UniProtKB/TrEMBL annotation:
<dbReference type="GO" id="GO:0016887">
    <property type="term" value="F:ATP hydrolysis activity"/>
</dbReference>
<keyword id="KW-0813">Transport</keyword>
<dbReference type="InterPro" id="IPR003593">
    <property type="entry name" value="AAA+_ATPase"/>
</dbReference>
<dbReference type="InterPro" id="IPR027417">
    <property type="entry name" value="P-loop_NTPase"/>
</dbReference>
<dbReference type="InterPro" id="IPR003439">
    <property type="entry name" value="ABC_transporter-like_ATP-bd"/>
</dbReference>
<keyword id="KW-0547">Nucleotide-binding</keyword>
<feature type="domain" description="ABC transporter">
    <location>
        <begin position="74"/>
        <end position="310"/>
    </location>
</feature>
<protein>
    <submittedName>
        <fullName>Sulfate-transporting ATPase</fullName>
    </submittedName>
</protein>
<dbReference type="Pfam" id="PF00005">
    <property type="entry name" value="ABC_tran"/>
</dbReference>
<keyword id="KW-0067">ATP-binding</keyword>
<dbReference type="GO" id="GO:0005524">
    <property type="term" value="F:ATP binding"/>
</dbReference>
Amino acid sequence: MTDDNEAKLPPDEEVSLTAEVSADVAPVVEEFMAEAAQANEEEAEAIANDSNIEADAGIAGEEFLNSSQVGPYISFEHVCKSFGDFVVLEDVSFFVNPGETLCILGRSGVGKSVSLQILMGFLKPDQGTVLVAGQDISGLSEREMQEVRRKVTMVFQNGALFDSISVGENVAFPLRERRTMEEDQIRQVVKGLLEMVGVAGMEDLLPSDLSTGMKRSVAIARALAAQPSAVLYDEPTTMVDPLMAHLLGDLIQRLKVQLHLTSIVVTHDMRFAQKLADRVVFLHEGKAHFFGTMEEMRSSKDPVLQEFLALDALILPN
Ligand SMILES: Nc1ncnc2c1ncn2[C@@H]1O[C@H](COP(=O)(O)OP(=O)(O)OP(=O)(O)O)[C@@H](O)[C@H]1O
């Protein structure tokens, strides 16, 4: 390939999500994805309008929330969480706007996964306000929380697939729950989603037949089948090879750009965060020690951040 041709290639995030989808199922999958993208765009606009009304009325609240131009889609406001006497989170605040990606960074045991579990309503905060899908989830019942989890879904490290049913049935699960799709449409969307996430033709395998990275890809396909507006990823690049990590990073970025998905990514991987994050929150000793862009984090003179970045550079030399 000549340099000229290379210059004409679209950036990774603009390569169509359905580029790898077979022609026989592409129309159905494209329609399915377009529906999801439109719903996410409309929801983001609604939140932007609401927050403009609030800002006009002068009731937008805290300084850190005012710094976001749109209303946040997900946020922690002064969240505290302890297990017995052990304080994990102490007055932690951060947000992610609709269609943006936030990476949660920090050493082992600082409460990154606990934060995700609070956002999913699996753990309750002791204090503070947690906003998910634009609404305060603190007073919600388990049933109401299940509705929120249709919009904001999580991709667990191990995929959390149903072990006893096939890969295809795992991905079909959210489609069947909708009760609006014909069997043939379901088959086409499942096939297309699996092709899209790089595990084509694996419908009939069991989750136990798959590698860790493949399970994670299937978990992303299952998450997308629910047409969510936000996806929370817990350590997506842990225990996968660098090529798989790169593919997952590309996919998350394309989902953001083309589906307007809001994402929160817990990661140890600074290169991954550099590639994906609009903002990062760095948890340290129970606090949100830093909340800002990667550039701001890299240029910070804060000794704790500098030490973390220096250690990362040692582990992953350029
Ligand atoms: N249900 C629980 N009961 C008691 N302690 C818990 C519970 N869940 C988490 N913890 C503790 O809270 C702390 C934070 O855990 P968490 O899993 O959020 O860390 P992390 O930042 O995700 O770490 P890693 O990067 O190693 O995954 C740990 O000390 C953990 O043992």
